[in-house]
Each structure stands twice: as C-alpha cells, then as structure tokens.
# Entry
Amino acid sequence: MDQVQALAFDVFGTVVDWREGVAREVARVLGPAVEGRALADAWRAGYQPAMEAVRTGARPWVNLDVLHREVLDRILPAFGLNTVPEDKKADLNLAWHRLDPWPDALTGMERLRRKFTLVPASNGHIALIVDMARRSGLRWDAVLGGEVSQAYKPQAKVYDDAARLLGLKPEQVMMVAAHPSDLASAAGRGLRTAYVHRPDEYGRGAAQARPANGRFDYSVDSFIELAEKLGV
Amino acid sequence: MDQVQALAFDVFGTVVDWREGVAREVARVLGPAVEGRALADAWRAGYQPAMEAVRTGARPWVNLDVLHREVLDRILPAFGLNTVPEDKKADLNLAWHRLDPWPDALTGMERLRRKFTLVPASNGHIALIVDMARRSGLRWDAVLGGEVSQAYKPQAKVYDDAARLLGLKPEQVMMVAAHPSDLASAAGRGLRTAYVHRPDEYGRGAAQARPANGRFDYSVDSFIELAEKLGV
# Structure
C-alpha cells in the first residue's frame, strides 16, 4: 500500500448525502407538502438506467444535468406534480450541485490531502463537482470523471483515467467508495480499494450489508478512520 | 463586469516564474556549471514551435511532458551536454512541474477565490498542474486545459471550454494572463480579460512593453491589485 499516491473518490453517497440534500431542495423549491425523500429515492432510482444508454453507446455522452432532468420530468407526475413551472424544474434539477458532505468528509479529506492527491472519480460533470465543492468547502486537486472521461462508471475508462491523467500506475491509485460494485470495477482495472460504510445513504435503518472482510484493501466507517489506517 | 463568475488563468509566466524555476532545477540536476537561465530560455523558445504541429493537426495531441522532452533533447547539445544520462533527463524534464508562483500569486488567488471560481486555462496537462499546485499551495477549483481540451492555446477550444465546462457564458469568464496575445485570443472568444504585468518573466531588465490602456478590461501589476479592482 506504500505506493498509493492518489485517492479517487466516488462522490454521490460516498462523499455527500444525496438523499437528504435532494429532499431539502425539494422542500425549498416545491414546498413541504411534497414527499422529498421519496422523490429523492425515485430520482436516484432512475439514475443507473439513464446512464445505460450512454454506456452502451446508444447515445453520445451527455452530462448529469441532462440525465437528471430527463428522470425528473418522468417521475414528477407520479408525485402528482404535473404543472411545475419550468424555472422551478430547472432550479430543482441543480439540487445535485448542492449536496452536503457526510459529517466526517471535510475533516477526513483535509487530513488525507496532506499525503495524497484527491480527485473525484465520479459520474458528476465538472460544473456540478465544482459547484458542490465551492458550496461545501470540499477541496479537490483536480476534477476527473465527467467530461474528462466522457464515460460513466463502471466503464473502465473512468478508472483508467484516474491513474493515467495523474501520471500514475493503477496500483498507485486507491478508489474510495461506499458501493462494492464500484470498488469491484476499480479493482478490475488494477486500482487499490477502500470501502467506506455509509449506512444512512438510503435513509436511517436502510443500512446496506457490509462487504465480507478482505474483499477490499480497506473497510472503514469514515474518512477519518481511513486517514488513520493510511497513517496520515 | 458584475456578471464575471470565474477566472481562467494562464499559468506559465502569469502564475509561476518558469525561468527561475527551470534554472534552479537545471542547477540541481546538471550542476551549477550549466547556464541554467540560458537553458531555460532556449527550452521555452522551443515551446511554441513544438505545439504548432498539434495545433495544425499534423500530430495528435500529446502532453507537455512529451513536447518538453523533445525540445530538451534538441537543445542539450548546444550547451555542450551530449552525454546526460536518461534518468537525469527524465528528472529535469519535470522541472516544469516544480515552478514557484510569483510572490503575489498565492495571496492574490486566495482572495480572488472567495468570490470567483479559479481554473487554469493553460497548455499544461493535469498531472503537471496538480504537481505544481500541491508543491506550491496553489488552489484550483478544477483543472481545465490540457487533456480536458486536447488543444493548445490560442486554439479556440481552450477558451470555449473554460466557459462551457463551468456551465457559464463566455462573458462570465475572465482570462487572466501576462501575455497580450493570449488575452486577445480569449477576447476573440467572448471572454473578459485581465492583463497582469510580469516584467521579470524573461529576466530582470527584460521587461515587456505594457499594452495600451483600454486594450483589455483590466491591467494590473499583481493578483492582489486584481482582487482589489474586482472588489474582493
């Protein structure tokens, strides 16, 4: 592990709490009568299928604002929201730019950054990641993923680029994510892996099963614990 | 000017002092007997011609490490250096990753970042810009240019991408550079412009002429003065 020089982070769910952030924005834009968490869950559920057309090559790469908006337009009627004005929909669509980090994220990343180069290896595009970082105080050394790779995880290019664009070998980069499938894909491209348990990603009490011991290089409960394990 | 939300910086010569930094690295790697500043000047003189083959499409985009190395190999014999070992040439080639900011740069950019998104719009690639920033404490909100645009200034794509990738209109981005030609190209793509006078870029006493008043939106002597003029 001594050769690891950079950490590549999944963002949605790993660095930030998308569910509470989207629910808060739903309440702000559409009012408290709308079920914000349920809408967040439905929005997120449409996310993987929306990317699939890009992954298969059926459509050219488009950014997450485009995909999020398509999903939003599709799910609003199910919430009885058939007449949301365009300006409110455009505003709400940027909810994903305005998500808050998990409580340990800023402190943990500030420590990790002393020793490691920190980059997102996210499906988020540059403007989204920049808006989120400037709003919350997250600090990235460069913004990868998005337009830089023009691919959506688990496409190999996103993981390969995280190493290549930093001038590193795959084994010099560690993927940090709350999602075993993401980490498994990263490991398949030669990256090191750190699983971060985020039991509240889908709401309190909806905890995901923790992956088996030894499946990933590290398994931690916070970025602070990861910093400790990495000796920084 | 109130609509400007992001500042896109030229890096070599505008943010960092390439001449003194390269000369220092020449002394470190090759010893004090070599004329470091003269070698830096010769190296830099080969930079524009080296990029031209990429700009014309005669060769695919390659990063600055590749171009710098080609120029270095070509100029070393003129300095009587015909037998530099490969490991020293590889080390020296990374001199461009290890340049120091001008004295006002860190303080000025820290102020500017309170209000504006800061990105490089540089010909430098991601690994170079990241190495430089981590070494010197520069803080970028995202690293543009390089692999992101796969073009070399003054190609329009570099300027266009600075706005497009931040989700902004060209007039919401201000190019900050010490080189009038760079600013003129940026203005041609609709960006705002700030000229920063760097009289020592080519050595003390080799001051460039200051562009005529009114040619650019701002003309300043430091990033601190730019912050003052932009009210931050």
